Amino acid sequence: MRAALSAAASSSSTTTTTSTTRAASRARAMASSAPAAPSSTPPARRRAPVPTVTLNSTHEMPLVGLGTWQAPVGVVGAAVADAISRRGYAHVDCAAAYANEEEVGDALRDAMASGAIARESLFVTSKLWNDRRRPRDVRAGLEQTLRDLKLDYLDLYLIHWPVVWRRGTLMQRDGDASIAECWRALEALVDEGKIRSIGVSNFDEAQLEELMRTARIAPAVNQIERHPKLPQDALVRYCQERGIVVTAYSPLARGGALFADPVVSDIAEKHSVAPAQVLLRWSVQRGVVVVPKSVTPSRIEANADLWGFELDASDVEALSTLEDGESVVASPWGTKQKKNVVLRPLLTAIMWPVSKIVRVDVQRMGRSGFWRWAWSEGE
Ligand SMILES: NC(=O)c1ccc[n+]([C@@H]2O[C@H](COP(=O)([O-])OP(=O)(O)OC[C@H]3O[C@@H](n4cnc5c(N)ncnc54)[C@H](OP(=O)(O)O)[C@@H]3O)[C@@H](O)[C@H]2O)c1
């Protein structure tokens, strides 16, 4: 089924820009250029909700979510609370590997208890780490995440990377497990009502083809790195033609050099918005969900304020000149980084003897049991 953008996000609605909206966007753009201290006085009114896209599971997914990777414990809870209570967010992108789901869960619980948002309106994504591919581990991984997030069900659960590692190792392939078996375990959890939609992350066309050969439930989402330096247009087209919604991670290219690039800053000036808003609008107006990470209230606000302007064909054309195919995410097991052709086999070789000595449990990162001796008892 082809995913359909909700009417609220259609281009006709985005072209009905009023001067008030532009002025507000401009003010927010200026505010977003520098980090601001958390505001103690919330705006009088919560912002309007972010538009949604319909998944092949029939559930609605907000086009903007708050990223939480590297949002530190002690800070992430306030960012989630601010995003939900004041900035119109209803979507939070989490993962067990980010080591902060307990604090995110506290903020979600408090937001619901205060009446800021109802569970039905909230969309929470989490991800299953690379060494949890056997059915028992899939179930236990989900249950730990649900406990940490203090939820009865997840809106979306993703296979974090298209790799199958032995439990407790980094980059050591588990020959007795598979993505297909992991997917069947996820399908069973959908049947039980513990997950509403299931999807993948960092999968390419061949990996999706392989998965869909045996899947009973088609993946609803593929979350991939996407920004003008790495647009992955062919993969976006492939997914959208098959009704798989694409989520762009690192949509700001991690907040680096792109903001200062004259191509981006000129377009931002033309529309009186911030460079970050240009990068995010570039994805959402193609029906691609974005999950920008910020712990800065003014930026959290600006990153969800994308509906008062539209990039035209010349803007999109200019942004296409920024493509250089370089990933901004340093994951040795990723396939997008050219340097990994050498790095990946090297690290696999180095990690093999290490895995004989210690077990590193990324799914439990930052808590007791995160690492232990390989020969010690227990899970
Ligand atoms: N599936 C995967 O394998 C995968 C991989 C990577 C990321 N992700 C997800 O995608 C999310 C976003 O990606 P990311 O964290 O890599 O990078 P990103 O969202 O592209 O960039 C985040 C950086 O940009 C800054 N920033 C945010 N909004 C800004 C604005 N309006 N103006 C200026 N700077 C701004 C943030 O700073 P402050 O926080 O200080 O404001 C932070 O340093 C992650 O948090 C995670 O949820 C998934």
Question: How are the SSEs placed, and which strands pair?
Answer:
Blueprint (H helix, E strand, L loop, with lengths): L3 E2 L5 H5 L3 H14 L19 E3 L5 E3 L3 E2 L8 H11 L4 E3 L7 H13 L9 E6 L6 H15 L4 E6 L19 H13 L3 E7 L3 H10 L6 E5 L7 H9 L3 E5 L12 H10 L3 H10 L4 E2 L6 H7 L9 H8 L19 H16 L2 E3 L10 E3 L6
Parallel strand pairs: 4-5, 5-6, 6-7, 7-8, 8-9, 9-10, 10-11
Antiparallel strand pairs: 1-2, 2-3, 12-13
The protein binds NADP nicotinamide-adenine-dinucleotide phosphate.
Second-tier CATH architecture: Alpha-Beta Barrel
What is the CATH first-level class name? Answer: Alpha Beta
How would the global form be characterised? globular
CATH topology: TIM Barrel
Please work out how many helical segments DSSP would assign: 13
Overall mean pLDDT: 87
- Alpha-beta classification: alpha/beta
- Amount of beta strand: 5-15%
CATH superfamily name?
A: NADP-dependent oxidoreductase domain
Domain count: 1
**Rg, nearest Å:** 20 Å
Report the order of strands and helices.
EHHEEEHEHEHEHEHEHEHHEHHHEE
Low-confidence stretches: 1-45
Bin the helical content: 25-40%
Q: Largest sheet, if any?
A: 8 strands, parallel
Bound molecules: NADP nicotinamide-adenine-dinucleotide phosphate
Strand order of the largest sheet: 4-5-6-7-8-9-10-11
Give the N-terminus to C-terminus distance in angstroms: 40 Å
Total number of beta strands? 13
